[in-house]
Design brief:
- Helices cover 73% and strands 0% of the residues.
- The chain has 158 residues and is mainly alpha-helical.
- Keywords: Coiled coil, Nucleus.
- One of its GO terms (molecular function) is RNA polymerase II cis-regulatory region sequence-specific DNA binding.
- This is MYT1L protein.
């Protein structure tokens, strides 16, 4: 196991003496070994990129990573702007809701308690229904109620 060539191996020398190989046979064996070494070398070159190609591939990967990082940063900045806009819109919606609650506090819809934060959604749904289906609300009381609502919300700035 520690000997790396036939000439240095004590067993190989005695085995070659016993086999009595001719010079021509020895040359053939040596050529086969040389051919196998070349085949292995050729295959290894095919499987491994030369350093220049490897460096180019690494550079391309680095460029790709830099581009992705830049795109990610841009997307994060855009998301921050959108989040700020959403917060602003939610704040404006809360202000409008409070203004509507304040303006309609004295107007009671049929079968509902006066408007407050707890019943706000139901109150708005009922109002929406009343305005989209005015033909169902033809009674004089309902017409007066709708007119009172119009007067109450006129001062709300949107």
């Amino acid at each position: 196991l520690t000997v790396h060539s036939l000439s240095g191996c004590p067993r190989a020398t005695s085995a070659m003496k016993k086999a009595k190989l001719s010079g021509e046979q020895m040359l053939t064996i040596k050529q086969r070994a040389s051919n196998e070494t070349q085949n292995i070398s050729t295959q290894s070159k095919r499987h491994f990129k030369p350093p220049a190609q490897l460096e180019q591939a690494v550079a391309a990967l680095r460029n790709g990573i830099t581009t992705m990082e830049s795109n990610l940063k841009t997307i994060e900045e855009e998301n921050k702007v959108i989040e700020q806009q959403n917060e602003s819109l939610l704040h404006e919606l809360a202000n409008l809701s409070q203004s509507l609650i304040h303006s309609l506090a004295n107007i009671q819809l049929p079968h509902m308690e006066p408007i407050n934060e707890q019943n706000f959604d139901a109150y708005v749904t009922t109002l929406t229904d009343m305005y989209t289906n005015q033909d169902r609300y033809q009674s004089p009381e309902n017409k007066a109620l709708l007119e009172n609502i119009k007067q109450a919300v006129r001062g709300i700035q949107v």
